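Supplementary Methods. Inverse-folding protocol.

Structures were first reduced to a discrete structure-token string of length 268. This string, shown here, constituted the complete conditioning input.
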């Protein structure tokens, strides 16, 4: 009986269909073709707001966006999320990032005719943080379980990585090879597959653009020493040291993406 409804002894509740079990009810619900609602990630929402401001003329074509610090404060977001949003907008050809100068609104005449797939990407920083968790444990397991043949493969991958980094390759192929050698030397196939999937995420356009913008030549040189520390710990069968070296390496890689973007300077 609902509030305010007069009670009548002649009224009875509708009979319960006992044949409609919970399993059948769930089956009917799941049979309905309803698509899950995906909530946009923070950097995607930031990019959407900046795109709206560009479209409504708040930021005119050819204009320079406000300084990164001021823009993050105005939007009440972290600078790391803002950087991901700016990288996404550049992939969409809405802005052009000029290191040491700022981010500029691209004129409509210069915008690409086709849409990019960057909106479907996982946040590069989220991928890096997950890598730090799982690859640190993979390194520790590799120190315990790697076979002599796997260690030899790891040494060969490290030598190729050193050569490629000294040549200032933006994304050396041997870097992926080195990390996947460790993953498969962990003697845990499921863990190795997870790590390989994370590296596939890293090959997406947004992450590659962030690396191009924010990873310096000096950082690539530092990478050689960090990879050498990981290799040395695994060869010595020192699992805690291998875990620690991998954690330091990936923390530094994440930090590079957070701090190396030079301040987008305001108009003089």
């Amino acid at each position: 009986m609902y509030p305010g409804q007069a009670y009548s002894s002649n009224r009875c509740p509708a009979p319960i269909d006992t044949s409609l079990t919970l399993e059948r009810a769930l089956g009917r619900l799941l049979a309905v073709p309803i698509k899950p609602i995906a909530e946009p990630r923070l950097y995607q929402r930031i990019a959407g707001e900046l795109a709206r401001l560009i479209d409504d003329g708040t930021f005119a074509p050819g204009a320079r966006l406000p300084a990164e610090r001021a823009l993050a404060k105005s939007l009440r977001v972290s600078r790391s999320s803002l950087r991901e949003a700016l990288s996404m907008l550049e992939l969409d050809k809405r802005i052009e990032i000029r290191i040491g100068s700022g981010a500029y609104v691209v004129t409509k005449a210069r915008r690409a005719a086709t849409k990019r797939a960057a909106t479907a990407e996982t946040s590069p920083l989220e991928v890096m943080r997950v890598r730090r968790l799982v690859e640190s444990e993979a390194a520790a397991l590799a120190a315990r379980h790697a076979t002599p043949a796997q260690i030899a493969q790891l040494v060969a991958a490290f030598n190729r990585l050193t050569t490629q980094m000294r040549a200032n390759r933006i994304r050396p192929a041997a870097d992926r090879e080195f990390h996947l050698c460790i993953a498969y030397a962990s003697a845990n196939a499921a863990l190795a597959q997870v790590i390989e999937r994370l590296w596939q995420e890293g090959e997406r356009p947004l992450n590659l653009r962030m690396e191009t913008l924010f990873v310096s030549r000096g950082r690539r040189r530092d990478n050689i020493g960090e990879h050498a520390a990981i290799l040395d710990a695994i060869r010595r069968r020192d699992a805690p040291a291998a875990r620690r070296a991998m954690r330091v390496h990936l923390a530094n890689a994440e930090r590079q993406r957070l701090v190396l973007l030079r301040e987008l300077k305001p108009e003089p």
